[in-house]
Write a structure and sequence with these properties.
The structure holds two protein chains of two kinds.
Chain A lengths: L18 E5 L6 E7 L3 H12 L4 E7 L7 E8 L5 H34 L1
Antiparallel strand pairs in A: 1-2, 2-4, 3-4
Chain B lengths: L1 H7 L2 E4 L4 E2 L11 H7 L1 E7 L3 E7 L3 H13 L3 E12 L5 H9 L3 E2 L20 E8 L1 E2 L3 H4 L10 H4 E2 L2 E3 L4 E3 L4 H4 L6 E2 L5 E4 L5 E11 L10 E14 L6 H9 L5 E3 L5 E3 L15 H4 L2 E16 L5 H30 L1
Antiparallel strand pairs in B: 1-2, 1-18, 3-4, 4-18, 5-14, 6-12, 7-11, 7-14, 8-9, 10-13, 15-18, 16-17
Helix pairs in contact in B: 3-10
The chains are: A alpha+beta, B alpha+beta.
Chain lengths: 117, 341
């Protein structure tokens, strides 16, 4: 009855941005990113990636409501870099890691198949 | 004591009840070179249906993101629209339509587009099947004698098409599809899925339209039947066990993790097969003699394909999709900056 339409999983209303950037009013070098059309896959992945950065003091995410298809990611840095910069670095790192992982995986599969023959 | 502390960074300890798992996210930056060095992938087994592989050196978030993508965000083709012209079988229309939706279709989804909201079905976003089948009485004396009808096990011998299988679905090429898929005809993954049973005079006629979609909309689009990971078990003996105790422990383990040397000493033969049943540490006397642990950054993935993709393709597609997602976030964040300036 209250289930959101399936199309809401894939498309945003025209006036909504994919990622909103909200500065924290109470702390310096802290920000909140509201990411639309994302879930725990994105939230947890980014959180872990951010925490590995030594300039990040805090990072966490939450999904405010199970029927609303968005997550909030909070980032607090030590001031050497801005939260947005940290988030971008996190994305960059993940990207490189995925490429490395794919390469390694394909190599191993090839090797395994070679052994079989 | 400090030894246990050090060890708890890399291991989760299995207790009689529960697990000691200390979350340690190292706040020091893990440089990318280190990631490449630490990352280790090993294929344990691979066949047409499933793949088991080890990934060492990633964090739980990474592993879980992959698993979630395998299940719900790799696109496939599945029957979405059914035009039912005739259905006099025992299965109600809507149940049959739902049943058709769950039939896995063997076609490369990468060659198709997702159908837009206001788009019609065309050769780029749709695969069509027709199913027209009628059950009739065979022309044999046994079949003509209606008294034989009573026993359902006679159905196949007496009637034509008493069972409807996926092999009865006929692919109808749209536009240039016939040319495009000449070498890989589109068909259901399995030809022997029972769709319905019929008796003489009953008929099913329908048009089945497949569309591209992802598992988070409906599970029929999920390319995996199961996709899971677990932490690699690490089992060690803290002190030497031999003699009767060794025999006792060996027979306790249902997975045969332990074995006995010729000298009568117990040793860990194969820790991978451990299912964490805890049978070996149930008895108080063994609790302190065995170290039952899990390696925290060593994941054993098992991905079982439904049949639309090869199992190894599911993994590479999953990584590709995640990578594209991350790229999209980065670009959006870059775009945000330009907006502000």
């Amino acid at each position: 009855m209250n289930t959101p339409a399936i199309s809401e999983l894939f498309s945003l209303p025209p006036d909504v941005k994919k990622i909103e950037h909200v500065d924290d009013t109470k702390a310096k070098h802290a920000a909140k990113f509201v990411m639309h059309l994302e879930d725990h896959t994105a939230g947890n992945l980014l959180r872990y990636s951010l925490l590995r950065n030594e300039n990040v003091k805090f990072s966490g995410y939450r999904r405010p409501h199970p029927l609303e298809n968005k997550i909030e990611l909070k980032v607090h840095t030590n001031g050497k870099i801005s939260p947005k910069e940290a988030a971008k670095q996190a994305c960059d790192n993940l990207c490189t890691e995925f490429i490395k992982m794919k390469e390694a995986f394909l190599m191993q599969v090839k090797e395994f198949k070679g052994e079989g023959k | 004591m400090s030894n246990i502390f050090e060890e708890s960074k890399t291991r989760a300890f299995i207790k009689n009840e529960g697990v000691d798992y200390n979350t340690t996210v190292t706040t020091q930056e893990l440089p990318l070179e280190d990631f490449a060095e630490n990352l280790q992938i090993d294929v344990i087994s691979l066949n047409d249906e499933d793949i088991t592989f080890d990934v060492k050196g990633i964090d739980p978030a990474f592993a879980n993101a992959l698993r979630r993508i395998f299940i719900s965000e790799i696109p496939t083709m599945a029957i979405e629209k059914v035009n039912m012209w005739q259905n006099t079988s025992v299965i109600p229309d809507e149940v049959l339509a739902h049943r058709m939706g769950l039939v896995p279709i063997k076609v490369d989804p990468r060659l198709f587009e997702v159908k837009g909201k206001n788009e019609d079905h065309n050769e780029n976003n749709c695969v069509q099947f027709n199913l027209h089948i009628k059950c009739t009485r065979k022309n044999t004396p046994e079949a003509q004698n209606r008294e034989n009808d009573i026993l359902p096990e006679n159905d196949e011998a007496l009637f034509n098409h008493a069972s409807v299988y996926t092999s009865d679905m006929k692919w109808v090429p749209i536009g240039t599809q016939e040319e495009k898929f000449k070498n890989t005809p589109i068909r259901p993954v399995y030809e022997d899925i029972l769709l319905s049973k019929m008796r003489p005079g009953q008929e099913i006629e329908m048009e089945l339209m497949c569309e591209k979609g992802v598992g988070k909309t409906h599970a029929k689009w999920s390319p995996v039947s199961t996709a899971y990971y677990r932490l690699l078990p690490d089992i060690a003996l803290k002190e030497e066990i031999s003699g009767e105790e060794a025999q006792e422990l060996k027979s306790k383990c249902p997975m045969n993790v332990f074995d006995i040397e010729d000298t009568g000493k117990l040793f860990v033969k194969n820790s991978r097969v451990c299912t964490t049943c805890r049978e070996c540490i149930r008895d108080e006397k063994f609790v302190d003699k065995i170290k039952l642990a899990k390696v925290k950054n060593h994941f054993e993935f098992t991905v079982e394909s439904v049949g639309m993709y090869k199992p190894e393709e599911i993994v590479t597609e999953g990584i590709k999709i995640l990578k594209e997602k991350v790229k999209c976030w980065k670009n959006t964040m870059k775009g945000m900056e330009e907006d502000e300036e």
